[in-house]
Amino acid sequence: MAFYSLFLLVIHLFIYSFSNKVITPQCGYQNSLPFHQSSDSFESNIPLNLCVPTLAYDQTTVTLVWNKPNNYSNIIDYNIYMNGELIGGAKENNFKNSPAFPYINLFYNEDKFNFHTKITYHSFLVKNLEPNKIYSFTVRSVDENGNESKDSAEVVHQTAPNYKKVFDVSKLGAKGDGKTLNTKIIQNAIDKCSNNSKSPFDCKILISADKCGRIFLSGALYLRSNMTFEIANGTILRGSSSFVDYPLIKNVVAALLYGIDHIKNVRIIGFGTIDGQGWQSSSDTIDELGNNLAYYENSYFSTWNLTGILARSQMQAAVDRANGNISSTDLSNAYASVRSSLITFYAATNIFVGNIRLINPAYHGIRFLLSRNVVCAYTRTETYNINNADGIQSQSINTIIFNNFLNSGDDCVVFKAGQGQAVENFPPTQYGWVFNNFMREGHGVVVLGSETGSWIKEILAEDNVAFLTENGMRVKSTAQTGGGCQNFYFRDSAMREIGTKNIIEINGHLFNRSNVIYQSGSQCAFVLSMTYSLGSTNWVRAKTPSYFLDINVKSVTVDNGNTATGGPMISVTGYSGNISLGYPETFSKNVTFENIKIIRARPANISRLQDSLFKNILIEDWGNFQSPWILNNTENLKFVNVQPMPN
């Protein structure tokens, strides 16, 4: 009897301890900062800022992320504890769950000479939990000798309750035959399900295969606040190929899935596919893992009427609205405004996009515009060769992008901030954290600009791996755009074959890149450019020119295979000034390159750079060029332990 009473007391105390714990807030701006204050010393090896990203959980799972400790030089992994018990390591967990992991793992398996910077994984997907239950978590660093750090600060999180309403559209009359237009049925389900919903777990829309098939055709759909939109594994939500199914909305570019009108608390999830049906497909390729990878016909402004599908319909409608008499300028502006993206959130708050496969937009992939607290994780983008098909685009505050595979038609991950005078008083695009992604093809790995009008600030990109992209780190703008970029940290990453046209063998697969058509004109591992193309000029130029400052590149490796192809390993170009526009000459300032190793790449070409540092740089094999450094019109550059030094 006494034992039984003691048992009840222990259970009571356990329940009481959890019921009185305060749920930890979601991840915030501090995660995008490169250095952190902690209760321990600055040299501590304890992980920092453990948290759950916005809406990155459901009834049975919770995703955890954390910042590396300030002292992480010998850290190789992290162990996760739930309610005080070890549940696994971060690397093993990414092996099981991240679509980026197998590509990253192969990248390092091919690194026979141990040349590249090694990344670490700082996320963990906890599974097999119970609905509506409170759990506590901590994380510990693991060093190269297997020693653990002390516990991080604790995170307390409650899983979601079961959905109150689930609307399976196939049971409401939608047909997955790939022919029937289901827009009205799906939209009606969204509106009814979200009515009076107070949480994204009050309402779920489910797109799943039915007896008719697994491809659900639809026009533009308007998501509502407090809902989950799930596309089940094996199911495809395919965009209509007709412009009439995408009504034009003022100030918002068309999309298949919209989140506008200040909506909040929305999740787009599932292991299905969103297909924009934007352009004609070419022959798919087999990637280095032996997986099928979607490719599309080369698409440009000049080919929309030849290779476009939805893109052609939307562009032709713009021509028809002008009675066939449209100027080249207006046609160019239409090309930048009428084509559909796959997902667009505008002025939204608390958004999570996870696990979805994204293919064939007429324009961009995912766009987060003037929004706050947005997350994109565990997705797979396949948009290569599609003109302007950025993978993940953010013009928002507090963006987290991790564990994604991107094979993109334009920039893989890009931060933007508008153009010209119209956005000068907009809030900056600020606090972005990009980590543990694999960027396979695309114009740039992690990119700032070219729209920089309201400033892009406090972006941390770390522990990413790139292969075959046209450029690596890319910061770009024009003087007329205005604003600029500040406090961008690009670190602890590895890149191979950036902007080259080599013949590459990897894992028994041969890739002949000799006929690749690059579109950016630079093909560099590191780019800071003030001479980017203006593109559409349907906006009023800024009062003062844009510029870049406080850019930090640290612990990054680049191997370009050979020096026969590719652009400069580093390219920095400022702005020469324009008296008629009232613009002075501008320089990039306070740029740091530290702990960089580059092999088999063409010389750096640097101009209009001031007050900057190059430290611990090792360059091997820059071809038949006299020096790996070409410097012109630079001021107060400092070179410390650089091999070889500039002449």
TrEMBL record:
InterPro entries: FN3_dom (IPR003961), FN3_sf (IPR036116), GH28_Enzymes (IPR051801), Glyco_hydro_28 (IPR000743), Ig-like_fold (IPR013783), Pectin_lyas_fold (IPR012334), Pectin_lyase_fold/virulence (IPR011050). GO terms for biological process: carbohydrate metabolic process. The active site is at residue 443. PROSITE patterns: FN3, POLYGALACTURONASE. CDD domains: FN3. Pfam families: fn3, Glyco_hydro_28. Residues 1-19 form the signal peptide. Residues 46-162 form the Fibronectin type-III domain. GO terms for molecular function: polygalacturonase activity. Keywords: Glycosidase, Hydrolase, Signal. PANTHER family: PECTIN LYASE-RELATED, PLASMIN AND FIBRONECTIN-BINDING PROTEIN A. Belongs to the glycosyl hydrolase 28 family. This is Fibronectin type-III domain-containing protein. It comes from Meloidogyne hapla (Root-knot nematode worm).
